[in-house]
Specification:
The chain contains ten helices and eleven strands. It is an alpha/beta fold. The chain is globular, with a radius of gyration of 20 Å. The mean pLDDT is about 95.
Length: about 350
Protein backbone atom coordinates (compact mmCIF):
# COMPACT_ATOMS: atom_id res chain seq x y z
CA UNK A 1 0.00 0.00 0.00
CA UNK A 2 1.34 3.43 -0.96
CA UNK A 3 0.88 6.61 1.02
CA UNK A 4 -2.02 8.45 -0.69
CA UNK A 5 -0.57 11.77 -1.81
CA UNK A 6 -1.82 13.36 -5.02
CA UNK A 7 0.69 14.44 -7.70
CA UNK A 8 -0.29 18.11 -7.49
CA UNK A 9 0.46 18.16 -3.77
CA UNK A 10 3.76 16.36 -4.28
CA UNK A 11 4.67 19.10 -6.74
CA UNK A 12 3.56 21.74 -4.24
CA UNK A 13 5.81 20.16 -1.60
CA UNK A 14 8.78 20.08 -3.98
CA UNK A 15 8.26 23.78 -4.67
CA UNK A 16 8.37 24.53 -0.97
CA UNK A 17 11.52 22.44 -0.59
CA UNK A 18 13.15 24.71 -3.14
CA UNK A 19 12.17 27.62 -0.92
CA UNK A 20 13.88 25.91 2.01
CA UNK A 21 17.14 25.52 0.12
CA UNK A 22 16.95 29.04 -1.29
CA UNK A 23 16.34 30.52 2.16
CA UNK A 24 19.42 28.87 3.65
CA UNK A 25 17.33 28.05 6.76
CA UNK A 26 17.04 24.34 7.54
CA UNK A 27 15.44 25.08 10.91
CA UNK A 28 13.69 28.01 12.61
CA UNK A 29 13.12 29.77 9.29
CA UNK A 30 10.33 31.39 7.28
CA UNK A 31 8.40 28.16 6.56
CA UNK A 32 8.03 27.42 10.26
CA UNK A 33 6.54 30.88 10.75
CA UNK A 34 4.24 30.35 7.75
CA UNK A 35 3.07 26.94 8.99
CA UNK A 36 2.32 28.28 12.47
CA UNK A 37 0.47 31.25 11.00
CA UNK A 38 -1.59 29.07 8.64
CA UNK A 39 -2.51 26.52 11.28
CA UNK A 40 -3.40 29.28 13.71
CA UNK A 41 -5.70 30.83 11.14
CA UNK A 42 -7.33 27.45 10.55
CA UNK A 43 -8.13 26.80 14.22
CA UNK A 44 -8.61 30.53 15.06
CA UNK A 45 -5.94 30.42 17.77
CA UNK A 46 -2.25 31.38 17.97
CA UNK A 47 -0.08 28.32 17.32
CA UNK A 48 3.51 27.16 17.91
CA UNK A 49 5.01 23.99 16.44
CA UNK A 50 6.96 21.31 18.31
CA UNK A 51 8.29 17.92 17.26
CA UNK A 52 5.44 15.73 18.55
CA UNK A 53 2.03 15.81 20.16
CA UNK A 54 3.63 14.39 23.29
CA UNK A 55 6.09 17.29 23.41
CA UNK A 56 3.14 19.67 23.04
CA UNK A 57 1.47 18.16 26.10
CA UNK A 58 4.72 18.11 28.07
CA UNK A 59 5.33 21.79 27.34
CA UNK A 60 1.88 22.75 28.60
CA UNK A 61 2.21 20.71 31.80
CA UNK A 62 5.71 22.07 32.44
CA UNK A 63 4.50 25.65 32.10
CA UNK A 64 1.57 25.00 34.44
CA UNK A 65 4.00 23.77 37.12
CA UNK A 66 2.14 20.56 37.85
CA UNK A 67 5.16 19.01 39.59
CA UNK A 68 4.24 17.59 42.97
CA UNK A 69 0.51 17.81 42.32
CA UNK A 70 -2.19 15.77 40.55
CA UNK A 71 -3.22 15.87 36.91
CA UNK A 72 -6.57 14.27 36.14
CA UNK A 73 -6.50 12.38 32.84
CA UNK A 74 -9.20 10.22 31.21
CA UNK A 75 -8.34 6.53 31.28
CA UNK A 76 -9.41 6.18 27.64
CA UNK A 77 -6.45 7.87 25.98
CA UNK A 78 -3.09 7.14 24.40
CA UNK A 79 -0.27 6.75 26.88
CA UNK A 80 1.34 10.02 25.70
CA UNK A 81 -1.22 11.93 27.77
CA UNK A 82 -0.45 10.47 31.22
CA UNK A 83 3.24 10.03 30.43
CA UNK A 84 3.58 13.74 29.61
CA UNK A 85 1.96 14.66 32.93
CA UNK A 86 4.17 12.23 34.81
CA UNK A 87 7.31 13.44 33.02
CA UNK A 88 6.38 16.96 34.13
CA UNK A 89 6.46 15.69 37.72
CA UNK A 90 2.76 15.16 38.42
CA UNK A 91 0.89 12.25 39.89
CA UNK A 92 -1.61 10.97 37.32
CA UNK A 93 -5.20 10.41 38.47
CA UNK A 94 -7.38 8.45 36.04
CA UNK A 95 -10.97 9.51 35.47
CA UNK A 96 -13.71 7.48 33.81
CA UNK A 97 -15.28 8.28 30.44
CA UNK A 98 -18.78 8.47 28.97
CA UNK A 99 -20.08 5.68 26.76
CA UNK A 100 -21.78 8.29 24.57
CA UNK A 101 -18.61 10.03 23.34
CA UNK A 102 -15.68 7.97 24.80
CA UNK A 103 -14.37 11.19 26.42
CA UNK A 104 -13.81 12.44 29.97
CA UNK A 105 -16.85 12.13 32.24
CA UNK A 106 -17.82 15.27 34.11
CA UNK A 107 -19.34 13.20 36.93
CA UNK A 108 -16.12 11.23 37.36
CA UNK A 109 -14.06 14.43 37.23
CA UNK A 110 -16.13 16.02 40.00
CA UNK A 111 -15.43 13.07 42.30
CA UNK A 112 -11.67 13.22 41.74
CA UNK A 113 -10.82 16.92 42.13
CA UNK A 114 -8.93 17.70 45.36
CA UNK A 115 -6.79 20.60 46.62
CA UNK A 116 -3.83 18.73 45.06
CA UNK A 117 -5.26 18.98 41.53
CA UNK A 118 -2.94 21.10 39.38
CA UNK A 119 -4.60 20.52 35.99
CA UNK A 120 -7.33 18.58 34.20
CA UNK A 121 -6.78 17.12 30.75
CA UNK A 122 -9.66 16.36 28.41
CA UNK A 123 -9.02 14.20 25.34
CA UNK A 124 -11.15 14.66 22.24
CA UNK A 125 -11.58 11.15 20.85
CA UNK A 126 -11.96 9.91 17.28
CA UNK A 127 -12.30 13.30 15.56
CA UNK A 128 -15.19 14.81 17.52
CA UNK A 129 -15.08 17.10 20.55
CA UNK A 130 -16.02 15.86 24.00
CA UNK A 131 -19.80 16.20 24.34
CA UNK A 132 -19.47 17.72 27.84
CA UNK A 133 -16.62 20.08 26.97
CA UNK A 134 -18.58 23.26 27.80
CA UNK A 135 -19.56 21.90 31.21
CA UNK A 136 -16.04 20.58 31.92
CA UNK A 137 -14.53 23.95 30.99
CA UNK A 138 -17.02 25.80 33.22
CA UNK A 139 -16.33 23.43 36.13
CA UNK A 140 -12.57 24.00 35.82
CA UNK A 141 -12.97 27.79 35.58
CA UNK A 142 -15.11 27.87 38.72
CA UNK A 143 -12.37 26.07 40.63
CA UNK A 144 -9.48 27.92 39.00
CA UNK A 145 -8.01 24.67 37.67
CA UNK A 146 -6.23 24.89 34.28
CA UNK A 147 -7.87 22.78 31.58
CA UNK A 148 -5.59 21.19 29.00
CA UNK A 149 -6.98 19.77 25.76
CA UNK A 150 -5.40 16.77 24.06
CA UNK A 151 -6.38 17.47 20.43
CA UNK A 152 -4.42 14.62 18.81
CA UNK A 153 -7.57 13.26 17.11
CA UNK A 154 -9.65 16.36 16.49
CA UNK A 155 -8.30 17.88 13.25
CA UNK A 156 -11.40 19.05 11.41
CA UNK A 157 -13.72 18.65 14.39
CA UNK A 158 -15.94 21.67 15.13
CA UNK A 159 -18.85 22.56 17.38
CA UNK A 160 -20.55 25.94 17.74
CA UNK A 161 -17.73 27.59 15.85
CA UNK A 162 -14.97 26.14 18.04
CA UNK A 163 -12.43 23.37 17.61
CA UNK A 164 -9.94 21.78 19.99
CA UNK A 165 -7.94 24.24 22.08
CA UNK A 166 -10.68 26.87 22.48
CA UNK A 167 -12.02 25.64 25.80
CA UNK A 168 -9.00 25.48 28.09
CA UNK A 169 -5.64 27.07 28.76
CA UNK A 170 -4.03 25.35 25.76
CA UNK A 171 -4.46 22.52 23.30
CA UNK A 172 -1.95 19.98 21.98
CA UNK A 173 -2.25 18.67 18.40
CA UNK A 174 -0.42 15.66 16.97
CA UNK A 175 0.65 15.20 13.35
CA UNK A 176 1.85 11.60 13.75
CA UNK A 177 1.81 9.35 10.67
CA UNK A 178 -1.67 7.93 11.33
CA UNK A 179 -3.43 11.23 11.99
CA UNK A 180 -5.92 12.97 9.70
CA UNK A 181 -3.22 15.56 8.99
CA UNK A 182 -0.04 13.44 9.01
CA UNK A 183 3.51 14.79 8.91
CA UNK A 184 5.19 11.61 10.11
CA UNK A 185 6.19 13.35 13.34
CA UNK A 186 5.32 16.81 14.70
CA UNK A 187 2.90 18.59 17.00
CA UNK A 188 1.33 21.98 17.58
CA UNK A 189 0.45 23.94 20.70
CA UNK A 190 -2.45 26.40 20.51
CA UNK A 191 -3.32 28.96 23.17
CA UNK A 192 -4.50 32.53 23.67
CA UNK A 193 -1.92 33.05 26.43
CA UNK A 194 0.79 35.17 24.82
CA UNK A 195 3.17 34.84 27.76
CA UNK A 196 2.99 31.06 27.54
CA UNK A 197 3.60 31.06 23.78
CA UNK A 198 6.61 33.35 24.22
CA UNK A 199 7.94 30.98 26.90
CA UNK A 200 7.36 28.02 24.57
CA UNK A 201 9.49 29.57 21.82
CA UNK A 202 12.46 29.37 24.20
CA UNK A 203 11.44 26.08 25.85
CA UNK A 204 11.44 24.17 22.55
CA UNK A 205 14.97 25.44 21.76
CA UNK A 206 16.83 24.21 24.87
CA UNK A 207 15.54 27.21 26.82
CA UNK A 208 17.79 29.40 24.70
CA UNK A 209 17.42 33.15 24.35
CA UNK A 210 19.38 35.38 21.96
CA UNK A 211 19.51 39.11 22.68
CA UNK A 212 21.87 41.49 20.85
CA UNK A 213 23.83 38.49 19.61
CA UNK A 214 24.33 37.15 23.16
CA UNK A 215 23.06 33.62 23.88
CA UNK A 216 21.71 32.74 27.32
CA UNK A 217 19.72 29.83 28.74
CA UNK A 218 17.22 31.26 31.22
CA UNK A 219 14.89 28.24 31.07
CA UNK A 220 16.63 25.40 32.85
CA UNK A 221 13.93 22.88 31.85
CA UNK A 222 14.05 23.55 28.10
CA UNK A 223 15.11 20.97 25.55
CA UNK A 224 15.09 20.33 21.80
CA UNK A 225 11.47 20.10 20.67
CA UNK A 226 11.94 21.95 17.36
CA UNK A 227 10.75 20.92 13.89
CA UNK A 228 12.76 21.46 10.72
CA UNK A 229 11.85 23.65 7.77
CA UNK A 230 11.27 20.46 5.77
CA UNK A 231 8.60 19.31 8.20
CA UNK A 232 7.08 22.80 8.24
CA UNK A 233 6.90 22.69 4.43
CA UNK A 234 5.00 19.40 4.58
CA UNK A 235 2.74 20.89 7.23
CA UNK A 236 1.80 23.75 4.90
CA UNK A 237 0.95 21.27 2.15
CA UNK A 238 -1.03 18.95 4.41
CA UNK A 239 -3.04 21.86 5.75
CA UNK A 240 -3.89 22.87 2.17
CA UNK A 241 -4.86 19.23 1.53
CA UNK A 242 -6.93 18.87 4.69
CA UNK A 243 -10.30 19.99 3.22
CA UNK A 244 -10.04 17.26 0.57
CA UNK A 245 -9.22 14.62 3.18
CA UNK A 246 -12.05 15.72 5.45
CA UNK A 247 -14.59 15.78 2.61
CA UNK A 248 -13.57 12.23 1.64
CA UNK A 249 -13.86 10.96 5.20
CA UNK A 250 -17.23 12.62 5.77
CA UNK A 251 -18.64 11.16 2.56
CA UNK A 252 -17.60 7.67 3.67
CA UNK A 253 -18.94 8.30 7.18
CA UNK A 254 -22.33 9.19 5.66
CA UNK A 255 -22.38 5.75 4.03
CA UNK A 256 -21.36 4.10 7.28
CA UNK A 257 -24.20 5.90 9.09
CA UNK A 258 -26.66 3.92 6.93
CA UNK A 259 -24.98 0.64 7.86
CA UNK A 260 -24.13 1.00 11.54
CA UNK A 261 -26.82 1.88 14.06
CA UNK A 262 -24.77 1.36 17.24
CA UNK A 263 -22.38 4.32 17.18
CA UNK A 264 -21.80 7.67 18.92
CA UNK A 265 -24.60 10.14 18.14
CA UNK A 266 -23.23 13.65 17.88
CA UNK A 267 -25.03 16.61 19.46
CA UNK A 268 -26.76 18.96 17.06
CA UNK A 269 -24.27 20.95 15.02
CA UNK A 270 -21.18 18.93 15.96
CA UNK A 271 -18.89 18.11 13.02
CA UNK A 272 -16.33 15.31 13.27
CA UNK A 273 -12.99 15.12 11.51
CA UNK A 274 -13.38 11.30 11.61
CA UNK A 275 -9.90 10.31 12.68
CA UNK A 276 -11.80 7.12 13.49
CA UNK A 277 -15.32 5.92 12.77
CA UNK A 278 -16.45 4.22 15.98
CA UNK A 279 -19.14 1.56 16.36
CA UNK A 280 -20.25 -0.56 19.32
CA UNK A 281 -20.73 -4.34 19.46
CA UNK A 282 -20.10 -5.38 15.87
CA UNK A 283 -17.82 -8.41 16.49
CA UNK A 284 -18.61 -9.64 12.95
CA UNK A 285 -16.89 -6.61 11.40
CA UNK A 286 -14.65 -8.00 8.63
CA UNK A 287 -12.71 -4.85 7.72
CA UNK A 288 -11.35 -2.82 10.63
CA UNK A 289 -8.49 -0.50 11.47
CA UNK A 290 -8.09 -1.58 15.05
CA UNK A 291 -9.62 0.03 18.09
CA UNK A 292 -9.08 3.58 19.21
CA UNK A 293 -7.69 2.19 22.48
CA UNK A 294 -8.05 -1.46 23.45
CA UNK A 295 -8.25 -2.97 26.96
CA UNK A 296 -4.46 -3.11 27.24
CA UNK A 297 -4.01 0.48 26.07
CA UNK A 298 -5.96 2.22 28.81
CA UNK A 299 -3.90 4.64 30.90
CA UNK A 300 -3.93 2.66 34.17
CA UNK A 301 -2.13 -0.22 32.43
CA UNK A 302 1.07 1.85 32.29
CA UNK A 303 1.74 1.18 35.95
CA UNK A 304 -0.93 -1.37 36.73
CA UNK A 305 -2.73 1.33 38.69
CA UNK A 306 -6.20 0.28 39.89
CA UNK A 307 -8.88 2.78 38.91
CA UNK A 308 -12.65 3.03 39.08
CA UNK A 309 -13.25 3.25 35.33
CA UNK A 310 -16.10 0.86 34.41
CA UNK A 311 -17.23 2.87 31.37
CA UNK A 312 -13.71 3.17 29.94
CA UNK A 313 -13.26 -0.60 30.33
CA UNK A 314 -16.63 -1.21 28.63
CA UNK A 315 -15.66 1.08 25.74
CA UNK A 316 -12.34 -0.70 25.26
CA UNK A 317 -14.03 -4.09 25.14
CA UNK A 318 -17.06 -3.18 23.02
CA UNK A 319 -16.01 -0.78 20.26
CA UNK A 320 -14.67 -1.42 16.76
CA UNK A 321 -13.53 0.85 13.93
CA UNK A 322 -14.32 0.18 10.27
CA UNK A 323 -11.66 1.67 7.99
CA UNK A 324 -11.95 5.39 7.32
CA UNK A 325 -8.32 6.19 6.55
CA UNK A 326 -7.93 8.43 3.53
CA UNK A 327 -7.56 6.33 0.39
CA UNK A 328 -9.27 3.14 1.61
CA UNK A 329 -9.96 1.23 -1.60
CA UNK A 330 -13.56 0.14 -0.84
CA UNK A 331 -14.80 3.66 -0.12
CA UNK A 332 -16.25 4.05 -3.65
CA UNK A 333 -18.27 0.82 -3.51
CA UNK A 334 -22.03 1.18 -3.54
CA UNK A 335 -23.82 0.80 -0.24
CA UNK A 336 -24.78 -2.89 -0.59
CA UNK A 337 -21.29 -3.89 -1.71
CA UNK A 338 -19.81 -1.92 1.16
CA UNK A 339 -22.16 -3.58 3.63
CA UNK A 340 -21.20 -7.05 2.37
CA UNK A 341 -17.51 -6.18 2.58
CA UNK A 342 -17.85 -4.98 6.16
CA UNK A 343 -20.39 -7.38 7.65
Amino acid sequence: MRIPFEPEYRQRYFELLNEVFDSNFWSAGPLLARFEQSFGEYVHLPARAVNSGGAALLAIFEYLRVRGGDVIVPANTFWATPLAARKAGARVVYADCNRTDLCLSLDSLKRLVTPATRAVCVVHIGGHLAFEIDEIAAFCRERDIPLVEDCAHVHGGWWKGKTGGHYGFAGAYSFYATKTMPLGEAGMVVSRDEEFLHWLEHYRDYGKRVEAGVVSYPLKDGFNYRISEFTAALGIVQLERLPRILAWKRALAAKFDLIFDRRPRFPEGMISGYYKYIVFDYPQLKERTGQVFGPGDLGPHIDGVPADIPHARWIAAHHQCPPIWYGWERADDDLEALKVALL
